[in-house]
């Protein structure tokens, strides 16, 4: 096997949490608010694609405990069609990671380092991530484990000081226009919930596999709660203004003012963002490297880490000319593409595997 | 500015090759081939993006593929 490291099930849960939350925390309040208005805190509950993905991953894992979905696709599709499908997946995961790197650097440039070229910020992040990924799976797992408590502490530190200023009247009317707005707002959120599919790439390396089911459902639940809380806090503080900002959660951090002594806490949010984005990029980078190495049937993935990093950096520049185009793409075609690639095709794969197994018996 | 970027690409690639090449042993033929192919495609993409920044990207491809479904969804989902 290409990867010799092992992680524990709880590390897997932390990896998943840290791989999904950071970018969604940043942008979801604004995007969801457009469609769901005051019901935006209910939208994360409609995590349909998350549930489906977790179900598929666990079912496939039970049948083939030592392989990820792309290896199974390659096996089912035989030689050439299998290689083509897994090649498309490889490019798509690289593309998704490019989008993540771009989101990270766009945020840093637009909110903090206004005059730094965007390539420098993405390049440094990719370089640091490349070093971590070269260290292997265990390093990535430990980074997730190490940063999760810091992440959650700082997240709470952003929410607790503003509790006194929350206006609960912003919450009403709940279901003012029925249940539909909250479901429509949940559409874009499926981008993040469908990312649960990356569990499939880590499950073969989990040492205590009987805990897998528990840890996956727990992290999905934790993601839903975190998103709900952050959306709720944004709504209660900003009300109708939520839709006017591109990064509403940052406004929360800027708002904090404890007796005129502690303020300008957006630097705390910056820490959350850099730590979270680091783990998130690492996780997707690792998946890209693993899939690429398996696709080319290499015995060791370490040599291709840096070349793929260069490609990742270039993709991050290539995905969109500016933030507006990027946000618009995420709200529409990219969400659809991710639902297709990470939910619908794996669901079809599960059906095929199930039928093939039935025929063999 | 462009020539600085072009120069930086060369520096990065040379550094990458120097660092990685000595770490690979003689038996790792497959890895070496994969490494070279990836580096070359990276260099080609880098200069392509440097010389023609407006070259259509993957986002346009995805947008074109999903255009019909996006239009249907837009008629269902409305901004309030």
Automatic annotation (TrEMBL), chain A:
One GO cellular-component annotation of the UniProt record comes to: membrane
Coiled-coil intervals, chain numbering: none
Keyword check for Lyase: no
Which Pfam families does the record cross-reference, listed alphabetically? Spore_permease (PF03845)
Any one GO biological process: spore germination
The protein's superkingdom reads Bacteria
Provide this UniProt record's keywords sorted from A to Z: Germination, Membrane, Transmembrane, Transmembrane helix, Transport
Name the membrane topology term.
Answer: Multi-pass membrane protein
**Annotated transmembrane regions:** 12-35, 41-61, 82-100, 112-134, 146-166, 186-207, 219-239, 268-292, 304-320, 332-356
InterPro entries listed in its UniProt record: Spore_GerAB
Q: Where in the cell is it found?
A: Membrane
What family, per the record? Belongs to the amino acid-polyamine-organocation (APC) superfamily. Spore germination protein (SGP) (TC 2.A.3.9) family.
Q: What NCBIfam families does its record include?
A: 2A0309
- UniProt name for this protein: Spore gernimation protein
Report the source organism. Answer: Ureibacillus endophyticus
Q: What is the lineage of its organism?
A: Bacteria, Bacillati, Bacillota, Bacilli, Bacillales
TrEMBL record, chain B:
Give a yes or no for keyword Membrane in this entry: yes
This protein's UniProt keywords: Membrane, Transmembrane, Transmembrane helix
Q: Does the keyword Transmembrane helix apply?
A: yes
Membrane-traversing stretches: 6-22, 34-52
Put simply, this protein is called: Uncharacterized protein
* Species the sequence originates in: Ureibacillus endophyticus
């Amino acid at each position: 096997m290409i990867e010799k490291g092992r992680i524990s099930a709880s590390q897997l849960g932390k990896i998943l949490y840290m791989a999904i939350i950071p970018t969604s925390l940043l942008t979801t309040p604004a995007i969801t608010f457009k469609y769901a208005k005051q019901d935006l805190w209910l939208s994360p509950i409609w995590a349909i694609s998350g549930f489906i993905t977790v179900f598929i991953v666990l079912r496939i894992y039970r049948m083939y405990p030592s392989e990820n979905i792309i290896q199974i696709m390659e096996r089912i599709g035989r030689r050439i069609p299998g290689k083509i499908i897994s090649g498309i997946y490889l490019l798509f995961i690289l593309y998704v990671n490019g989008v993540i790197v771009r989101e990270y650097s766009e945020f840093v440039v637009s909110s903090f380092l206004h005059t730094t070229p965007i390539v420098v910020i993405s390049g440094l992040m990719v370089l640091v991530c490349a070093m971590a990924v070269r260290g292997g799976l265990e390093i990535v797992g430990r980074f997730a484990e190490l940063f999760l408590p810091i992440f959650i502490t700082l997240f709470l530190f952003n929410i607790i000081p503003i509790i006194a200023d929350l206006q609960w009247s912003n919450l009403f009317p709940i279901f003012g226009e029925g249940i539909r707005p909250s479901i429509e707002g949940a559409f874009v959120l499926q981008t993040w919930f469908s990312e649960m599919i990356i569990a499939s790439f880590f499950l073969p390396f989990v040492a205590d596999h009987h805990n897998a089911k528990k840890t996956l459902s727990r992290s999905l639940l934790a993601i839903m709660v975190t998103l709900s809380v952050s959306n709720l806090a944004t709504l209660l503080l900003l009300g109708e203004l939520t839709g006017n900002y591109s990064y509403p959660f940052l406004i929360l951090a800027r708002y904090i003012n404890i007796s005129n002594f502690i303020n300008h806490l957006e630097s705390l949010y910056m820490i959350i963002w850099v730590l979270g984005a680091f783990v998130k990029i690492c996780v997707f980078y690792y998946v890209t490297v693993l899939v690429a190495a398996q696709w080319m049937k290499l015995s060791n993935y370490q040599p291709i880490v840096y070349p793929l990093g260069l490609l990742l950096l270039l993709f991050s520049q290539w995905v969109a000319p500016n933030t507006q185009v990027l946000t618009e793409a995420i709200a529409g075609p990219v969400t659809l593409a991710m639902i297709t690639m990470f939910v619908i095709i794996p669901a079809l794969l599960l059906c095929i595997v199930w039928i093939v197994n039935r025929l063999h018996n | 500015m462009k020539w600085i970027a072009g120069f930086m690409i060369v520096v990065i690639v040379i550094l990458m090759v120097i660092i990685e090449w000595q770490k690979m042993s003689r038996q790792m033929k497959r890895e070496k081939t994969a490494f070279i192919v990836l580096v070359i495609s990276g260099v080609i993409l880098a200069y392509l993006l440097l010389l023609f920044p407006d070259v259509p990207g993957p986002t346009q491809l995805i947008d074109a593929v999903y255009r019909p479904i996006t239009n249907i969804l837009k008629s269902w989902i409305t901004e309030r």
